[in-house]
Every structure is written in C-alpha cells, then in structure tokens.
C-alpha cells in the first residue's frame, strides 16, 4: 500500500512522509573526509532525510573508528579527532530533519587518510 504524499505545509510533513515511505530520492553525494577540518553536507533544498555510509581509506590501521561527527551542538562546536560520535568502515547512519542536515559535520580521526561518505538524500 502506497501512502499518499501529504500537501506541502512544513518540514514536519515532509519528514513524516520520508520516514513512513522512505521518501523520494532527490540527490546523492560523495563527500571526502580529512583529518584537517570538519566537512558539512551539500544537501538538496527539499532534503529532509539522508542515509550515510562510511568507506574507510584502504590504508587505515583501525577501521573500527575512522571518522567522528556531530549533528547538532548548542555551542556550535565542530567534531575533532578526539570529540564527536565515532563511526567505522561501512557504518551506516541516518540524518533526519533539515536542521540536522544543516549542522552535520564529520572529520577523519587518523592523519593523512581520506575517507568517503556515500550519501543518499530523500525529500
């Protein structure tokens, strides 16, 4: 059974639709993550939901933790190699809501490694 798409009234309706139906795929991004600075997402305007898969640099020594991220922080602190939520190789993470998409940032843990986030956007 297909749930009918609600009329567009707010981000809340779009997020609810995305959660109930998987939403419509509206974009994709490959984002390179380095240890030197935190990177944010370049999401499409109507995106309300993202699925992220982490791919570690092949030469990484410890693939259980390769990046750290933060979605939202009241003090707008960026993640660092020592602070933030860690994710490892082939970890999957979901970002829900436009506010969280706008504030998501990730950074690599190990120096001189380039990891990739494979990101599918829904709206």
Low-pLDDT segments, ≥5 res: none
Number of domains: 1
Tell me the β content.
25-35%
Estimate percent helicity.
10-25%
Strand order of the largest sheet: 1-8-3-6
Overall description:
The protein has 123 residues and is α+β, with helices and mostly antiparallel strands. It has a single domain, classed as Jelly Rolls (Sandwich), CATH 2.60.120. Helix content is 14%, strand content 34%. The chain has two helices and eight strands. The strands form two sheets. The protein has a four-stranded antiparallel beta sheet with strand order 1-8-3-6. The longest helix is centred in the N-terminal third of the chain and has 11 residues, at 11-21. The two termini are 19 Å apart.
Topology readout:
Layout (H helix, E strand, L loop, with lengths): L10 H11 L3 E9 L5 E2 L8 E7 L11 E4 L14 E3 L4 E5 L1 H6 L1 E4 L6 E8 L1
Antiparallel strand pairs: 1-8, 2-7, 3-6, 3-8, 4-5, 4-7
Structure summarized in a few sentences:
Helices cover 14% and strands 34% of the residues. The chain is α+β, with helices and mostly antiparallel strands. The chain has one domain (24-122): Jelly Rolls (Sandwich).
Features:
8 strands; alpha+beta; four-stranded antiparallel sheet; 2 helices; single chain; Jelly Rolls; 123 residues
